[in-house]
Design goal:
Blueprint (H helix, E strand, L loop, with lengths): L1 H27 L11 E6 L7 H16 L4 E6 L10 H7 L4 E2 L12 H6 L8 H9 L3 H10 L3 E3 L3 E3 L4 E3 L13 E3 L2 H9 L3 E3 L6 H6 L5 E3 L3 H6 L8 E2 L8 E3 L2 E3 H6 L2 H35 L3 E2 L5 H19 L3 H9 L15
Parallel strand pairs: 1-2, 1-3, 7-8, 7-9, 10-13
Antiparallel strand pairs: 3-12, 4-12, 5-11, 6-9, 6-10
Helix pairs in contact: 1-11, 2-11, 6-13, 12-13
Length: 355
């Protein structure tokens, strides 16, 4: 078993090195315009609306694929609500309706249980280095490659986003104030808040603003703080709780396996190289945008909750830890993930609290 895992890890490293080499070579070449029609036409569905910060990052990823392949792959961007809603991203790529997609795993917990752990259970570390090591060196990436393959999907380079915060219409002065609130929080985030007395709802990102404005929900998580800003959520919900549910999120790009297998090896390497570049862009731009997003929302009247008490911090952390045990006993891939994460004992929320 050890030799098998070692072989997988070495294979994955060779692939990454090869993709990186291709990326370096292509980047050094001048752009060569091509009047020829694309050999491969892809449709790429993402989670965000046109004009949003992250929507533009996905567009950059698509543009890089086209440029690095010298036009051999043409990628048509499909934004939120343009044919496929957020809850349909996973299934549309699996079926081949879309060639490539960026799903938000908590929205697909029933279709793909490992994704709930992949994105990060409550209490996951905010340390990018630790998360990168988890995926690249500790075998979690190989486990996910296998799990996605069983779904007719090819798993590309994952990307890491910022901590997950809760925005509410009423101030949260203590954890007890969550009791009875209806909060948009799919997947494990919802299970976490249910343990604190809230009622979670699994709404798509595009439904958050209207649901807050009309009182359907009392609060919402965002994939990160920038999501709250780009969705104008602070217009209708003014209070941000200081403790993040998760210190970071790890999100995937997936490709329909049949379409992937049609690509020659050089184009597969180019797509993987573009996905690695996309992962870097996601993280670096997120950090740059975060403080501006906070400033923009504060101009709209957004306020941070009071500093939590030590008792509330302890309750928050204990509640998160309880979920890890529950998930470990619920699914084969959950158990593998929790085992790989065995050294991650205590949530690290307070490390990232800089606001």
């Amino acid at each position: 078993m050890f030799n098998t895992l070692l072989s997988k890890l070495l294979t994955s490293r060779v692939k990454r090195c090869f993709a990186g080499s291709i990326l370096t070579v292509v980047a050094a070449l001048p752009a060569i315009p091509s009047a020829m029609a694309a050999e491969y036409n892809w449709r790429f569905v993402n989670l965000y609306s046109r004009g949003t910060a992250y929507g533009e990052v996905y567009k950059s990823f698509a543009d890089n694929i086209e440029a690095m392949s010298n036009g051999r792959i043409k990628v048509q961007m499909m934004y939120a609500g343009e044919g496929v809603g957020q809850t349909g991203v996973f299934g549309s790529v699996k079926s081949g309706l879309m060639t490539m997609g960026a799903p938000f795993q908590p929205m697909h917990a029933g279709e793909f249980p490992p994704g709930v752990v992949e994105v990060g259970l409550p209490g996951i570390t905010s340390d990018v280095g630790e998360l990168t090591t988890l995926f690249r060196e500790k075998g979690w990436g190989d486990v996910l490659t296998e799990a996605y393959d069983k779904q007719n999907l090819v798993w590309l380079e994952p990307y890491i986003q910022l901590p997950v915060y809760i925005l509410t219409k009423k101030p949260i002065n203590s954890i007890a104030d969550f009791k009875g609130l209806k909060i948009r929080a799919p997947g494990a985030y919802g299970k976490f808040l249910r343990k604190l007395g809230a009622s979670p709802a699994a709404l798509a990102w595009s439904e958050i603003y209207t649901s807050l404005a009309t009182g359907v929900i009392d609060g919402s998580i965002g994939s990160n703080i920038i999501d709250h800003r780009d969705g104008n959520h602070a217009e209708v919900a003014k209070f941000m709780y200081r403790l993040p549910i998760a210190g970071a999120q790890v999100l995937p790009i997936v490709v329909n396996k049949r379409e992937w297998n049609k690509l020659p090896k050089d184009l597969q390497a180019i797509v993987r190289g573009a996905s690695a570049l996309h992962a870097t862009e996601q993280m670096t731009k997120s950090r740059i945008w975060e403080s501006k997003a906070i400033a923009d929302m504060e101009k709209q009247g957004m306020q941070w909750s009071p500093e939590p008490t030590q008792a509330d911090i302890e309750t928050w952390n204990v509640t998160a830890n309880s979920l890890w045990s529950e998930y470990a006993n619920a699914d084969k891939y959950y158990d593998i993930a929790i085992t790989i994460n065995a050294e991650k004992i205590e949530p690290q929320y307070m490390k990232g609290l800089i606001y």
